[in-house]
Amino acid sequence: MPVNYIKKTDVGGLNLKEQVISINRVTKVVKGGKNLSFAALIVIGDPGAKVVGFGTGKAREVPSAIKKGIEAAKRNLRKVHVTEHSILHPVLGRFGSGQVLLKPAPAGTGVIAGGPVRAVMEAAGIPNVVTKSIGSHNPHNVVRAAVDALEQLRDRGEVADLRGLPVDRLKA
Description:
By secondary structure, the protein is an alpha+beta fold. The protein has 4 helices and 8 strands, in the order E-E-E-H-E-E-E-E-H-E-H-H.
C-alpha cells in the first residue's frame, strides 16, 4: 500500500464547525481509589473548503476534554478531493478492524451513512455519498477508517501525473 504524505492545512481563514462523536468515561484504579476522567472524540471541518480533521482529548471534566479534542483536531486537518456533488471514485478505508466503504452517489441522494461516518462526511462537505461501515463499530476505528478513505481520493490531475498522461487523455 502506498504511503500517503499528508499536507497539513492552515486553520487561518477556515470556518470550522466541530461535532462531538463520543464521550467516554474512563476510570483508573490507584492506591487511594478510582480516578475518574473523560475522553472525547471530536470531528471538525469546513464544508466550503473541503477540509476535515479529527482529534481526541482527555481531561477530568467533559468541557476540558472537548476543548483538548478540538485543539488536536485543528492540528490534524486534511484537504479532501471531491467534485461538486460527490466523491470521484469508490474507495475502502481501513484502520484496525474497522473498514469504511465510500461510493459516489448522484446529486440529490444525500449522505447515506451512520453515526461517526456521517459526521465525517458532513464536516468534509460531501453532499452525496453512500457509505458502509464494515467490521468494528468502535467510533475511534470508524472515524479513522473514514478519514483514511478520504485521504485515498485522488483528483484527475494527480492521476494523470502518476500515469504520465495529459489530463484530457484520461477516461471519465
